[in-house]
């Protein structure tokens, strides 16, 4: 029932959210490299954060806002619990994505979406700090320094690129602050993240 | 030729000619459902028939195994493309989105007559505000990605309503862009034949072209890849069982005829005698077919398969006649045997007669066939055959062979206590195991081989075909009324879904609402002027200005003009198949099926409480819904049939005993006849249980036939009630007669048709054991001179 395009977007957003595995500093290196970032991300077993998301859509006069919690649990469980404007629970675990909204529940197998299936690997790759797999799906660009960095993900897949132009993930040292997704149709969303519990 | 004989011969010839006439007009069927019990209620019977002719019987499930995922997907696509171009197939689904565009287009175009949310209330200012606010909020969710672009045309989110509702079912997994099994080892296709379920030839042709299309596509792959096609479905079962039965019946008849002819030639040493000996058999078989044809209107192939057993038994009478017609025999001597044979025929009739009251049409046919066959064979032997014997007719003198047999009988008699002991042991074993003897599954009666059933179940679960355990059925005389009834029931079911009592349900009215319901929804749509005014106030507080919703106003005014959706509009979408499989027409009667799904999660996960469903349906009593729980129905059904079979068997045995009591006029003699039969039955049951066979109703029927058929031999040993051993010639003819019967039934034990196998495997050994036990328990003389009583 999901259009593949929206699936791709969804997965991209999740992937971005999955990068919230921030934790203790991975050493304050002078030069902040993708390798170091990946290493820092790969160390975490679980984490919790609140999020606030704004979507700027051409069809609306004002951005739509939503807020809630993000939870990650090793090895591959990610939850996005929206509390406002309407409660919604989105759970990604293994190959399954379920969205529960009110009494309705949607279940999607990621592998059913051929060209998006690679993303499940990207997410796992991110969780595991597996840079090689991540680079198979995106071109990575890291800008800034350890105190204020921005990781840009550019989809390699052309069909994916028709929906998502780029994803900017910014943070400070091992702390994720913001995920920005730019869509090909000009709409964009910005998610601000505030960590709660520290990961082990 | 005596004067009395001429009318008899003329009568017989007329009879045979008439029979041949009827037989040439008889319709034969291979539909194995005749060996499934009839549904208990008229309603269920109608349902079963409709399912048989309806959509279900046209569906083929196919799986492609082997190779890698890409190769399987490639073949799946190529095969589907080939079949879609073939007129023999109405629908081919393999996961490719061939219908997705048209499905969505149809839903979107007709959303205002399809959506259950459309009411006059929803199009008031406050209703619109609520609906649009919800759609705006949805944009914050990832799900909003789906609705964003449609918002100006569908601000109330009607498409989402429809998609949510249609998305409840489990769908097959995907792999490389086509359906695949959950474990990823198979590509899957679902194919609908154009030929109906009753058109077996058409179905067979369709299955053949499916297989050959697969073979040619698989051959295009690089050599060394070995793909395999699995095909299942009602049509496959029907076609396979038809060809199985056709080949089996031929094979069984040939094998048993060959065995019996060999035996007869060995005994008779005369082709003339052989032909004469088979005359009663042929007359009997003709009479059997005629009786079934007249009684049932159609004859089952499996019933013909049992014809081989008839050969085995009917040929006995001729053996007795010929052996007694030896040069030493007199007419008087020959006639002395008739009472015993007559009694034997009558006990057989009692056994087969019990079958005539069976709930299995196949067994009832078998009963009628055997009775008619045996009576005619016996009469032919008694009144026609003696006159046809050439002057000086004699077969091999079996006296010396008979004398050897007498010694054998004495030897067996000395083993009497051993045999009695082993029979008692068997009885004790059966008693000890009495909880494990019976197979209580209705599926055990299924004519479909277990292996094929397993493949079918695997494909079905991979395809996420609904488990049709719980179903609600409504019926009416036209499609519109049926759909209205389905809607009344759907409303009740939706309440159960909302309450988490059931996971979901299907109904033809979800895809094709009744005209009345559609017009009702259409009339809820406001005219453009009103709508614009209402939108202005509805969106005042929302980030979505009314000016942006002009496409919505246009769509609504178009919807107000559009005629209601009809079945024809669904052509080319996947909803066409859904409606055709859930809304069935049979003559003047329309039936809607509403299968239920169990909840996936929550307090009632995986279970449906029938009482909750029944309670909810009370509010829809006007629709007269019929709630069917297939599993418990079939369980009760089976229990009922087992009870029926036990009653029938007991009645058959009681009839045999009563007959013996009247004929023998001595409780002691009756007991002496019955004892070997009881011993054989117990030994056969013990043997089957030891061999790991769980007994079904068909085995029970087999046990009844052991009593009916085996009584002949016990009667000969009891002959005249004195203590004499049967004369040598009689002994010899008994052994030959027994062997032909055992051959006739025994051959069935090697059949691959479960019903034949069960009965053959029971009666074959049982008849032989009956003879051995009868010989052992007979008061044979230790002295070898006949006539001297043993003391």
From TrEMBL, chain A:
SUPFAM superfamilies found in the cross-reference section = Prokaryotic lipoproteins and lipoprotein localization factors (SSF89392)
Hey, what's the signal peptide range on this chain? 1-28
Q: Does the keyword Plastid apply?
A: no
Regions annotated as coiled coil: none
Q: Name one Pfam family in it.
A: LolA_3
Keywords recorded for this protein, A-Z: Lipoprotein, Signal
In Swiss-Prot or TrEMBL terms, this protein is called Outer membrane lipoprotein carrier protein LolA
Species per Swiss-Prot/TrEMBL record:
Aromatoleum petrolei
TrEMBL record, chain B:
Task: Report TM segments.
Answer: 249-268, 275-296, 302-323, 343-360, 366-385, 414-432, 645-664, 671-691, 697-717, 729-751, 763-785
Signal peptide limits: 1-20
Task: Specify the superkingdom.
Answer: Bacteria
Q: How does it sit in the membrane?
A: Multi-pass membrane protein
Q: Does the keyword Signal apply?
A: yes
Which UniProt keywords are listed?
Answer: Cell membrane, Membrane, Signal, Transmembrane, Transmembrane helix
Q: Which PANTHER family match?
A: MEMBRANE PROTEIN MJ1562-RELATED, MEMBRANE PROTEIN YDFJ
- State what protein this is by name: MMPL family transporter
Query: Which organism is this protein's natural source?
Result: Aromatoleum petrolei
């Amino acid at each position: 029932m999901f259009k593949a395009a929206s699936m791709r977007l969804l997965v991209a957003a999740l992937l971005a959210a999955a990068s919230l595995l921030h934790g203790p500093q991975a050493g304050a290196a002078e030069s902040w490299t993708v390798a170091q970032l990946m290493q820092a991300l790969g160390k975490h077993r679980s984490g919790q954060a609140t999020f606030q998301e704004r979507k700027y859509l051409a069809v609306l006069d004002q951005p739509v806002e939503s807020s809630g919690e993000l939870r990650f649990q090793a090895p591959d469980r990610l939850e996005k619990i929206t509390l406002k404007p309407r409660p919604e629970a989105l759970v990604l675990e293994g190959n399954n994505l379920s969205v529960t909204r009110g009494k309705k529940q949607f279940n999607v197998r990621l592998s059913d979406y051929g060209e998006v299936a690679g993303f499940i690997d990207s997410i796992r790759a991110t969780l595991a700090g597996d840079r090689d797999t991540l680079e198979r799906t995106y071109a990575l660009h890291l800008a800034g320094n350890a105190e204020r960095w921005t990781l840009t993900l550019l989809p390699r897949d052309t069909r994916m690129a028709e929906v998502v132009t780029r994803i900017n993930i910014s943070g400070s040292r091992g702390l994720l602050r913001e995920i920005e997704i730019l869509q090909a149709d000009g709409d964009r969303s910005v998610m601000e993240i505030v960590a709660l519990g520290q990961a082990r | 030729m005596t004067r009395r004989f001429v009318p008899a011969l003329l009568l017989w010839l007329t009879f045979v000619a008439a029979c041949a006439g009827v037989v040439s007009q008889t319709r034969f069927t291979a539909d194995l459902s005749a060996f499934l019990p009839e549904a208990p209620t008229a309603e269920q019977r109608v349902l079963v028939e409709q399912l048989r002719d309806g959509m279900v019987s046209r569906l083929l499930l196919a799986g492609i195994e082997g190779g890698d995922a890409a190769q399987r997907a490639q073949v799946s696509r190529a095969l589907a493309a080939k079949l879609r171009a073939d007129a023999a197939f109405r629908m081919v689904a393999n996961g490719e989105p061939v219908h997705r565009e048209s499905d969505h287009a149809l839903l979107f175009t007709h959303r205002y007559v399809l959506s259950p949310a459309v009411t006059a209330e929803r199009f008031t200012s406050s209703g619109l505000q609520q609906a649009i606010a919800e759609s705006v909020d949805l944009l914050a969710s990832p799900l909003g990605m789906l609705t964003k672009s449609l918002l100006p045309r569908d601000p109330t989110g009607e498409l989402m309503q429809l998609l949510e509702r249609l998305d409840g079912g489990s769908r097959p997994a995907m792999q490389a862009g086509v359906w695949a099994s959950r474990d990823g080892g198979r590509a899957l296709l679902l194919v609908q034949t154009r030929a109906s379920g009753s058109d077996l030839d058409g179905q067979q042709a369709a299955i053949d072209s499916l297989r050959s299309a697969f073979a040619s596509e698989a051959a295009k792959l690089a050599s060394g890849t070995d793909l395999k096609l699995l095909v299942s479905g009602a049509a496959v079962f029907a076609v396979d069982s038809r060809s199985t039965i056709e080949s089996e019946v031929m094979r069984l008849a040939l094998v048993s005829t060959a065995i019996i002819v060999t035996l007869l030639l060995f005994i008779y040493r005369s082709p003339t005698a052989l032909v004469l000996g088979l005359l009663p058999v042929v007359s009997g078989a003709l009479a059997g077919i005629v009786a079934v044809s007249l009684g049932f209107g159609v004859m089952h192939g499996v019933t013909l398969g049992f014809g081989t057993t008839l050969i085995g038994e009917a040929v006995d009478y001729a053996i007795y006649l010929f052996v007694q017609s030896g040069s030493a025999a007199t007419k008087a001597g020959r006639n002395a045997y008739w009472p015993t044979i007559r009694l034997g025929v009558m006990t057989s009739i009692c056994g087969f007669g019990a079958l005539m009251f069976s709930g299995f049409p196949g067994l009832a046919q078998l009963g009628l066939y055997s009775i008619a066959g045996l009576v005619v064979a016996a009469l032919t032997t008694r009144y026609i055959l003696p006159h046809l014997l050439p002057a000086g007719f004699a077969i091999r003198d079996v006296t010396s062979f008979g004398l050897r047999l007498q010694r054998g009988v004495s030897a067996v008699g000395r083993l009497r206590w051993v045999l009695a002991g082993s029979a008692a042991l068997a009885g004790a074993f059966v008693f000890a195991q009495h909880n494990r003897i019976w197979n209580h599954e209705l599926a055990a009666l299924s004519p479909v081989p277990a292996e094929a059933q397993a493949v079918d179940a695997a494909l079905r679960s991979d395809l996420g075909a609904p488990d049709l355990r719980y179903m609600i059925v409504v019926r009416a005389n036209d499609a519109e009324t049926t759909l209205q009834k389905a809607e009344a029931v759907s409303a009740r079911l939706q309440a159960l879904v909302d309450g988490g009592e059931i996971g979901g349900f299907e109904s033809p009215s979800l895809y094709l609402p009744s005209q009345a319901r559609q017009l009702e929804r259409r009339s809820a749509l406001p005219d453009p002027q009103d709508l614009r005014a209402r939108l202005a106030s509805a969106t005042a507080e929302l980030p979505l200005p009314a000016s942006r919703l002009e496409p919505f106003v246009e769509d609504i005014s178009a919807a107000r003009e559009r005629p209601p959706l009809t079945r024809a509009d669904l052509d080319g979408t996947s909803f066409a198949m859904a409606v055709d499989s859930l809304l069935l027409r049979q003559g003047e009667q329309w039936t809607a099926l509403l299968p239920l799904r169990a909840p996936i999660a929550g307090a009632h996960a995986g279970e449906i409480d029938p009482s909750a469903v029944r309670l909810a349906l009370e509010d829809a009593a006007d629709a007269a819904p019929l709630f069917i729980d297939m599993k418990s129905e079939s369980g009760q059904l089976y229990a009922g049939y087992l009870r029926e079979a036990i009653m029938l068997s007991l009645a058959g045995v009681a009839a045999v005993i009563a007959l013996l009591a009247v004929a023998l006029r001595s409780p002691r003699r009756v007991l002496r006849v019955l004892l070997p039969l009881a011993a054989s039955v117990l030994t056969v049951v013990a043997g089957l249980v030891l061999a790991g066979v769980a007994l079904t109703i068909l085995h029970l029927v087999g046990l009844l036939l052991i009593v009916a058929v085996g009584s002949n031999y016990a009667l000969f040993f009891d002959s005249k009630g004195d203590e004499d051993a049967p004369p040598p010639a009689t002994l010899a003819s008994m052994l030959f007669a027994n062997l032909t019967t055992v051959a006739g039934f025994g051959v069935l034990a090697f059949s691959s048709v479960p019903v034949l196998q069960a009965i053959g495997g029971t009666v074959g050994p049982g008849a032989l054991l009956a003879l051995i036990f009868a010989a052992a328990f007979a008061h044979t003389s230790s002295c070898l001179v006949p006539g001297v009583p043993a003391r």
